[in-house]
Design goal:
By secondary structure, the chain is an alpha/beta fold. The chain has one domain (5-221): P-loop containing nucleotide triphosphate hydrolases (Rossmann fold). Helices cover 50% and strands 16% of the residues. The chain has helices at residues 16-27, 34-47, 55-64, 94-104, 107-120, 133-137, 151-164, 171-187, 209-226; strands spanning 5-10, 30-33, 67-71, 78-82, 85-86, 126-130, 143-148, 200-203. It has a 5-stranded parallel beta sheet. A 3-stranded antiparallel beta sheet has the order 3-4-5. The longest helix is centred in the C-terminal third of the chain and has 18 residues, at 209-226. The termini are close together. Bound molecules: cytidine-5'-diphosphate.
């Protein structure tokens, strides 16, 4: 059976990572959280005082940034590492969420991250979630999914997630951050978030984790059957 590329795009906090992780596990594929890469770059910029107005500082910082994913042997989950340090927890904080869309809109940042993402997908057999995966990173992905959910459902999910992670924020701040990022992500010049015409749309507002997984797993299998094996 041919191994395919699955691109999962959508607005902030609609559950892309959960679905992408579950699907990758079920298919024995690798999973890449492209948003975590932009979050790690943002963390580096904040920690090192890199100004978003300074293209020379940005280029030089990008040369020093090494983002990797490592499996946590205890939880078995993939975690984000920046220059040899596990940053999985710190990149999810509101301080990062408040700046990440501005950082991700920078051309130089996207050039570097997209190159890394394409490298990760070279052997196919991958599920990647983000904003421009189907439209830009892998326009030839066999399966493109556009995930969506009602704004109030997304806000509640992110609120619960932050509480669970021990970094709670007020609902007001969560709602504000999601609206802010959605706006920048969909209106930026470089590879904005768009719904590709060849993407299958899934609104998971009223679906459980297993129901959404069942749907996309079926889509992936239908496709794999129609794809001829590699020569
Ligand atoms: O999980 P959540 O919806 O909060 O967002 P994320 O996937 O962690 O992505 C964080 C931010 O990175 C997004 O708001 C985008 O600004 C940016 N991003 C992007 O520009 N392109 C991607 N392929 C993935 C994320």
């Amino acid at each position: 059976m041919k191994r395919i590329i699955i691109a999962l795009d959508g607005f902030s906090a609609c559950g892309k990572s959960t679905l992408a992780k579950d699907l990758a596990k079920k298919l024995h594929y690798s999973y890449v959280d492209s948003g975590a890469m932009y979050r790690a770059v943002t963390l580096y910029f904040i920690e090192n005082g890199v100004s978003l107005e300074d293209p020379i500082a940005i280029e030089s910082a990008l040369k020093d940034i090494h983002v990797e994913f490592h499996r946590n042997p205890e939880t078995k989950a993939n975690e984000t590492w920046l220059n040899g340090i596990n940053v999985e927890k710190s990149i999810r904080k509101m301080e990062i969420s408040n700046l990440v869309s501005e950082v991700a809109a920078l051309k130089a940042v996207r050039r570097e991250m997209v190159a890394l993402q394409r490298k990760a997908g070279k052997k196919r057999g991958i599920v990647m979630d983000g904003r421009d995966i189907g439209s830009n990173v892998f326009p030839d992905a066999e399966l493109k999914i556009f995930l969506t959910a009602r704004p109030e459902v997304r806000a509640q999910r992110r609120y619960d997630e932050l509480v669970e992670k021990g970094t709670p924020e007020s609902m007001e701040k969560v709602v504000e951050n999601l609206a802010h990022r959605d706006h920048i992500d969909s209106t930026r010049e470089e590879n904005p978030l768009i719904q590709c015409s060849d993407a299958r749309v899934l609104d998971n507002s009223d679906l459980s984790k297993s129901e959404q997984l069942e749907t996309v797993f079926r889509w992936a299998n239908e496709l794999k059957e129609t794809i001829s094996p590699l020569p």
